[in-house]
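Reopening: Type 2 DNA topoisomerase 6 subunit A still failing for me.
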Amino acid sequence: MSTDTGETADGSDGDARERLIELAAQFYDQFERGDVPHMDVPTRTKTNIEYDPEQKVWVYGDRKSTRSANSVRGAQKLLKVIYSIDFLANQLEEDRSSTLRELYYLSESWDLDEAQFNSQDESNQLIEDLEIVSDVRREEFHMRPEESGAKVMGPLRLREQTNRGDREIHCQDDVGQGGYQIPNDPDTIDFLDNDADFVLCVETGGMRDRLVENGFDDEYNALVVHLGGQPARATRRLTKRLHDELDLPVTVFTDGDPWSYRIYGSVAYGSIKSAHLSKYLATPEAQFIGVQPEDIVEYDLPTDPLADSDVNALESELEDPRFQTDYWEEQIELQLDIDKKSEQQALASYGLDFVTDTYLPERLDEMGIL
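Support: Ran it again with your exact input. Result attached.
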């Protein structure tokens, strides 16, 4: 069975359903030829994840794992694949959707006990397998995560396709201070018009609220995207579309610690878990605003000492190809030297308006965005 991880076809529900049925048909073809039914997928371990310096994203290597019916355990895995394909194909035919959690519980109603999932981790992994071998994103299967979408606030008018019809929304005029909620599949959005100059991705809800309350999106024509910690796939997909289709610079504003730098890394370079989707989710041109270790020193920000886990993470990042640039090596070495970390909200030690009146405008000017 093919494991091509090339570009996903952003086509119709019918296209996604057809891909799924083709996968099931391949098992029957294997039976007819007298072959043991099997399915090959890339091995999802750190040893099979490679950083592509040309694309500047994480990708899978050449190692593959085979799901084969030559053992009882392997046969049960393929049985679960067939049952899941049947469920997803029916879901698409009926134009319904479900969550990853619901799929796990739904399997308990399947007529064969051997087809039922033992845990949600197992069903989640199977959906990822189907994404890879079908070259169709789970959003096109109408599968949703449990978490609600992140929010966008800024000068953008769009049209969203919903099961209650198309809706045109302006992400300032037609929403409250909470902003526009990103749908599970941002490819159901058409960009109609915008007056934005750049995208500002913000790690924490508190800082996002500060920027909106201070009118930063309006004053600087910014699209403020709340990442909500480690950003969901939908958030990264929309951010990439804003960059690629509207030609908007993307900036990332996080806390000043190694875990937050990895949040930036997932926006810019993708993540190991979703390496098969890097070309849809990663925005290698994204720039890091801060909080930088340099800012901690320059502004004498309130800090906490680095924990042992922080030190280990920073040292690991020095070996991470995503962070092997002069800028990141300098910043990480400085942070290890000062032995401190700081949060976005620490900028409030200079007043509630400091971040929007001084810090961000100065940083954006230095970066050539303002």
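DSSP finds 13 helices and 17 strands in the chain. If you still see a failure, please send the error message rather than a screenshot.
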